[in-house]
Amino acid sequence: MPATIHQLYEQLQLQLGEIRSEEPGLLNQSTRCIAACRDAIQQLKLYIKEHPFPSKEAEIHFFKNEQPLFFSQLIFYVKVFQLESNRPAGGTGAERKFFQQQLDRLQFFFENNQEFYKYYRTGATHLDELYFLRGRYDLRLLPDDKVLALDPDGCTLQSLMVAKVLAHELLVDHIHGILVSLERVYSPASSPGLPSLQWTGSKVALIELIYAIQSARVLNNGQADIKLLTHFFESIFNLQLGNVYHVFQEMRLRKKGRTSFLDQLREQLVQRMDLADER
Fold first, then answer.
1. Gap between the Cα atoms of 163 and 77, Å rounded
2. pLDDT confidence of residue 145
3. Could you tell me if 72 and 163 are in contact, meaning their C-beta atoms sit under 8 angstroms apart?
């Protein structure tokens, strides 16, 4: 990232941080953050207009790795504003239902775009010239009709899709944090007499376990979903797992050892049984 673009993004991050610390309400926060993001994007567009890319590689790098950072912040705060504007006033139960529905929609986005998500997250490059060079539009690869209205100088076929991926990952964490705060009243750990347990393994291992339990459909007659199990384990162990959907996508992309923690559990349990047999 050239120094000027890097400085512009750092300046944006500092400005967003100041806004979040000054504004107590999410609506006012997001409104001011949207304005800051728009201003930074305009400065970014002016910079690339005045500084032409020296090569195709430089243009690809910009639209794949740099420009989406700015647009992801804008998309994120627009979504936060929309969420807060539509947040129900019917109490904790209504809020929980609303935000869980939003998580479902985000999960659908990741599942519906899993091929591109895999391409981007694995660092693939074979389609970079089509995806991240301006003017390389293939109608067969358009993700939706909105792409037809893109700014041809400021965006490429998939640079905004990268921004959406980054923004939606931020949004999952944001919503998850809200749900955790709403779930505190349901925390089993608050019940008297229960022992205090601390998860000392990795969060990825716990998420792998959660998905395995949910996939086996052994709780609530198979009706316990990932959100419920995540909140349950977070409450028991008093931790926050963050974007479990993103972690699951990363697990799926493992070239080997997709269930490394479960494999470890099985191996160690078998070893324990073997040792018991020897005695």
1. 12
2. 45
3. yes
